Amino acid sequence: MERYIDPPVVDNTKGPPYYQTVLLSDIPPEDVPFYYITQDGDRLDSLSNIFYKTADNWWVIAKANNLTNGSIAIPPGTKLLIPNI
């Protein structure tokens, strides 16, 4: 589930071209949700690597849990929904 597959390039008349913003896709609801309670030192990218075998899908966990502060750090004891992708 790649987030950036062939993103549109915007021609910028005032500078170099740049990639257009890519909106996150919706995460389908789970029939049987799986939750994980974070521990000290857990980060979204490391949890993605554990559950999805790649750190690139950290945004799936962030989107499913409405974590929109831009940080990959998570306080210990946070209950996270881990979507099945």
Q: Key features?
A:
85 residues; alpha+beta; Membrane-bound Lytic Murein Transglycosylase D, Chain A; two-stranded antiparallel ribbon; 4 strands
Please render the helix and strand layout as text.
Elements: E1 9-10, E2 18-19, E3 35-37, H1 44-52, H2 58-64, E4 79-81
Helix pairs in contact: 1-2
Distance between the termini: 7 Å
Major pleated sheet = 2 strands, antiparallel
Spell the H/E element sequence: EEEHHE
CATH architectural group of one domain: Roll
Q: Report strand %.
A: 5-15%
Give the averaged pLDDT, no decimals: 84
Shape: elongated
List unreliable stretches of 5+ residues: none
What is the percent of helical residues? 10-25%
Condensed summary:
The protein has 85 residues and is an alpha+beta fold. It has helices at residues 44-52, 58-64; strands at residues 9-10, 18-19, 35-37, 79-81.
Explain what the structure shows.
The protein is an alpha+beta fold and 85 residues long. It has a domain of 55 residues: Membrane-bound Lytic Murein Transglycosylase D, Chain A (Roll), CATH 3.10.350.10. The protein has two helices and four strands. A two-stranded antiparallel sheet has the order 1-2. The chain has a two-stranded antiparallel sheet with strand order 3-4. The mean pLDDT is 84.
